[in-house]
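Z., the sequence and structure:
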Amino acid sequence: MTQIITRKTLSHLDWLEAEAIHIMREVAGQCANPVLLFSGGKDSICMLRVAEKAFRPGRFPFPLMHIDTGHNYPEVTAFRDQRAAELGERLIVRSVEDSMQRGTVVLKHEGESRNKHQSVTLLEAIEEFGFDACIGGARRDEEKARAKERIMSFRDEFGQWDPKNQRPELWNLYNARVHKGENIRAFPISNWTELDVWQYIEREQLELPSIYYAHTRPVVRRGVGQNSAIVPVTAITPARPGEEIIDLQVRFRTVGDITCTAPVESAADTVEKIIAETAETTITERGATRLDDQTSEASMEQRKKEGYF
């Protein structure tokens, strides 16, 4: 009897997922004390699913950690805590407010965004727990500085990133070895795009914080031209004198500190609609929604050199 063997044709999501699983296992195999950064955002939610496929039915070989500015959207932090509890994994939360109390973070003024100061708190947490690798959901399509990253991004004993002093990754061979005090930032979904993320969310039926979907909230329109943005009106980001507050249907493409994360006008209230909308957009998610990336002072590359993720 002739046996017919059929081979499954892998989709592009299968290939991306397999690469991410391989990278995550490489980190677990090469590093003594890694941690997975989990904010409750869509990219880190995908990372949790990859970790499940890489290590279940066992426990993750690393804890989860979030560097909280203290000004995050409550829907996202609530989801963060809920998801970690559902998985039964340890969640470490360290806050920029703790660094402010220690005096290691000093704001220029009360209204200054805390987002860029996460670098200090992250480096303090790495030293506190002795982590030698931080796994995160950064993607190369997000921003020009992120596109310069290796999969295993080397940081020196001061937590600094030098884009000209990184290890080659020929033939997808990854080197995560470090000396004491040095650190690796590992990016398993580097090669994913925003569209890939949403297609993976659809395929895996992943739950997300509600603010990723279209909803109505009070906002103001601020700025003109390319620097214009929709700014949510909150206790942390109140309307300025003379600004008109309007109720607008919006959704968030990316989530982070309230002071620097803007929504986009959208009626996409399902994953399918978001995928269709994402396929047509010509503006990156950070370019459209991250207020702090629009000033030279808050340059992503400079912040990464100072220790930012």
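The first helix runs from residue 12 to 30. Residues 210-294 form one domain.

Let me know what you think.
H.
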